[in-house]
Design goal:
alpha+beta; FAD/NAD(P)-binding domain; 6-stranded antiparallel beta sheet; 20% strand
Amino acid sequence: MEKYDVIIIGTGAGGGSLLHKLKDSGKKILVLERGGFLPQEKENWDTVEVFQKERYHIKEAWKTEGDIDLHPGTGYWVGGNTKVYGAALFRLREANFETVQHAGGSSVEWPVKYRDFEPYYSEAEKLYTVHGKMGLDPTEPYRREEYPYPEVSHEPRIQQLHDELVQKGHHPFYIPLGIKLNEADRVNSECIRCNTCDGFPCLLHAKSDADINCVRPALPNPNVTLHTNATATRLVTNSSGTDIDYVEVSYQGGIVTYKADIVVVACGAINSAALLLQSANTNHPKGLANKSDQVGRNFMKHLNAAMLGISTKPNPTIFQKTLAVNDFYWGDDEFAFPMGHVQLLGKSNKDQLSADAPFFAPGMVLDEMATHSIDWWITGEDLPAANNRVQVINDRIHLDYTENNTEGFNRLVEKWKHILQSIDSGNSFLPHSIYLRKNIPISGTAHQVGTLRFGTNPATSVLDIDCKAHEIDNLYVVDGSFFPSSGAVNPSLTIMANALRVGDHLLERLK
């Protein structure tokens, strides 16, 4: 049985970032990825292939309430879901690390505060080439320095929208984006500001994902070994159940085993919880590290709505995802509780809109709609709930989720409709569910967090403040599982920053 210093299971925002942190340590590292490298092919930019045929999503079916099949909008690739994310890389707000009172209940205080994350947010922004501009977002947390790369400029129609919002007293700001764009030297810029970024793989490798920015740069190091199409099926503990002894892996047609001093799970919040549950043994009968009965519980994915604003004004924008608004993140004069976050989506075309055609008035032409639309993504905070959970039943992932804390989110959706109508950028405001899989809403799992929360009390959490399992001394988790609460901004940067933070801890431990 081959022995390593560290095994990292998963190569997404968490696993890839941790690999970057550890790659130059000289320690012998094995990286296991259940998928392969996402192919660089013309279909990367084909709307029909990407959205309608779901070329880059997994084919397996999970289960949800009522034993109904659930086809999740997720992919198994080197780089994980960062291969197709929109690369909107936000920091959580400082107060998100505290207990926050919502209309639907309270969020959970984090055991580590924003001040502890701040240097790692900066480090992650440099690693993932984040473009932005500080000082514009009224909810922006403290930053010790400006973004490492300049903001991504608005195209004329979006600049007009920005100016109209400002005239109405709002505070739009530039979305912090992880792309390899050089607007001062477009000839040599890797990013070309195309219309196939948000939700698409990047054919040019110009999106800052965990594969391109972290995994591939680590592979020349002789101490790093990557096995693709290698699925970790079980973590096996020693006889006392206090350490992971070895990892069972389905690889090249058989089951192989690997040992390591440190085992890091980074499969995504759903699959990481499933791996611990399916690794149950006599010492851990309910699943590894599950004495608290919290493994798999408190699943969160945000309250999300993709909406289409149809205007009389044409919108020739190509790269649309540049503007966001947080004016109602903590509420407003009429509602004293958090509502959420608003940002632009990538620009839709007729092939994306065709899936929603039954919602639209007869006679409307999809091309004309796409020409006059502005696409919005609205996010609200869902709260941790014990019954929103991941289970493994008959060897299949079973995901239960009931929305909560919807009042503030619904208010935000209605408020944003009225704001857009007041500036004529949205005479009609229609649901646009191609991003969410409208038939089963919980299949939109891009923002999955919370199933293995960290904390100081082993009775109510799975991981300690260093993301080590309370009950297993050499088991760590560095994906979105550790979140005690979800906030209302994209979780990717926080996952990346936390992986870098845990990486520093591991470097000390491995000395």
